[in-house]
Prior knowledge:
This is Molybdenum cofactor sulfurase. Belongs to the class-V pyridoxal-phosphate-dependent aminotransferase family. MOCOS subfamily. One of its GO terms (molecular function) is molybdenum cofactor sulfurtransferase activity. This protein is α+β, with helices and mostly antiparallel strands. It has 19 helices and 38 strands. Helix 3 packs across helix 12 (330-346). The longest helix has 21 residues, at 348-368. The chain is globular. Mean pLDDT is 86; it is low at 501-519, 628-636 and 674-690.
Amino acid sequence: MEDKEEFLKEFGDYYGYPNGPKTINEIRATEFKRLKDTVYLDHAGATLYSELQMEAIFKDLTTSVYGNPHSQSDSSSTTSDIVREARQQVLDYCNASPKDYKCIFTSGATAALKLVGENFPWSCKSTFMYTMENHNSVLGIREYALNQGAAAFAVDIKEAVDQDGASRSSVNSVKVSQHPVQRRNEAEVLEGELTGDAYNLFAYPSECNFSGVRFSLDLVNIVKQNAEKILKGSPYSKGRWMVLIDAAKGCATQPPDLSIYPVDFVAISFYKLFGYPTGLGALIIRNDAAKLLKKTYFSGGTVAASIADIDFVRRRDGVEEHFEDGTISFLSIASIRHGFKIFNTLTTSAMCRHIMSLAMFLKKKLLAFRHENGESVCTLYDNTSLKVSSHDSGSIVSLNLKRPDGSWFGYREVEKLASLSGIQLRTGCFCNPGACAKYLGLSHSDLLSNLEAGHVCWDDNDVINGKPTGAVRVSFGYMSTYEDAKKFIDFIRSSFVSIPSEFKKGYLLRAKSNPYPTEGIENRLSSSGCYLKSITIYPIKSCAGFSVQSWPLSSAGLKYDREWLLKSWTGEILTQKKVPEMSLISTFIDLNQQILSVESPCCEGKLQIKVDSDSYLCGKEEFYLHSQRLQHNGYFSIIRYEVRCYENEIDQWFSNAVGQPCSLVRCCHSQYCSTLSNNGSMGMCRDVDSRVNFANEAPFLLISEESVSDLNNRLCSNTQKHSVGAPAYVNPMRFRPNLVISGGEPYAEDGWRNLKIGNTYFTGKILFGILLRYDPGNRAGLDTNSWLTVGEEVHSNSE
């Protein structure tokens, strides 16, 4: 309680809606009861809908009749009235007069941005200028510009700030740094021929979704009126400048005031405002800008008349009707008024102050963390003041964490541990490659090297060549609480901060393993004090496994382990994450009878498949999967699998078990294929010394019972501190390990470079537990006549 009192002493005037109709505690208790055991910190990705909001929507939809607005019936007129009111609500939210602006509904903010890029009057004399901090959905506009012969370039914008941290964005206080000009079809126009009759577009976000930095709306008038001055007389500054703001993120707390700033285009996403509906956005467009857009396609709802067999069409005059192709999502549009009702009740200014107080509090606490040796724990990615009155800071705290020796924790490690602690956040680059590269200090060569090393969006390659490839992002919403922020702070402290009492014991001291050990390992192995406690085989990827006392090894790992998988009819690999029913499918292999037995509560009877017979097989297929494994040359690889398919009777059994059509396939051959080119094209395929089954990264996953026990103690301690429900318990089998060891100290395995169990040698990669593969430096490690047996001693090398 003392911590909260200290927080309220500094932020009490801003936190919790002190002058609102409900306090934050009342809001959480009545409208977000489902968050009882969850800390949700990804509001920049998607904020949460209120339960009362959804009740109101459900009541509305179940008591009203809404017809297609393109009809003339009473129900259609009702819909048209609702849509008209919704358009006005959107305009009112941005203080936009209907005399100057129109609201075009789209399928999302991305569709709104695409509409601008697709219909903008580009020419070979045009320029597309955009800030480095832009979402990919904005960068995609570049394709339209370049294909029409226009020039495009990124800029860095530095705005002077006053003592309170607020921007002072006059022409003289804004510094613009231009990146290289991109151009296609250069022969069409020379720089000296650029004239002032071209239309140019400047795009920037109201709030960067990577760092949370807000850009001043004064940039609108500065660019429109003084482009030549801020671009220092560049020939690309000539012409009429129009401004596009991506407000998908920033609009939730600070919508642009269009009565003051004459923005031409504003893109909005409603699920980022109030959680629901998804799949609906809007483009707020100035009337004079709408007249300049050149739309080609027409559809139902956009024409006054057309003739089918001759080239004749007369389009509707209204801006909204002109650009809204087909029937709009009118039921979703009818729902947004219930979201705006929340915003009007709490007010955006109060929500902004509430959210900023949490973000500032979190930043201060994270920056104060120090390891035992005095080194800082956290690196934040923003350039804003730590004063709550700062107008340049949004709801986002973007960061990475360092070990005491200065090396980086991988952001995926942080995300996975946070999930175990009931904390939901986001990691990566958040579809903002420019901001990611800028804040992480990644050069073009770094980015291309990372791509060649296999790094793509949403993978686990979080640190390459000693540099992070992305970040951890925490983002708050209007319903976030002090307790949410505090739990994240406590999670960072307990999991990643080195303190004297836990030095050399905690998770944070994970060693960086050498994947290719030198010779003579057996001479350096010593008893670890651990023994092999359990062995688990998972014949079918993502289905339940079975435990054994001993089991034979094959060139692919444990014999038959993850040798089968389920594939949807569209080719998608099924996993528990997407198909939780797979966890209910139990498996067992009888080595003597050579039979795989499978059972499911959704199916009658046990399915038995002979593993040494081809009688069930009905053909071969091949497909490719990305591997998380790097080859010896440092390049990324994908694996080409040749698989055998089964007859319809077996496929139907599994389709019934998981509740969707699928097929069972068995791996019979695999090859690594190098990806060497910058565009990710496939290179040479090669056979591997051992067959690779369907394991994610390595043939074995080893977990320490003591490490999991220590994790549970930390989770229990955090729960008791905050008195929030029963402590979470993590079973070692949650990680789906093949091998569980017992004995020794918690996390001792993190320092092991190599180990020997029985007569088999392994080398590993650390995440949580160890991903093991056979040690290529020891021929004994490839003895496929070996067995692993429960109780065998574990010998390790920590050099």
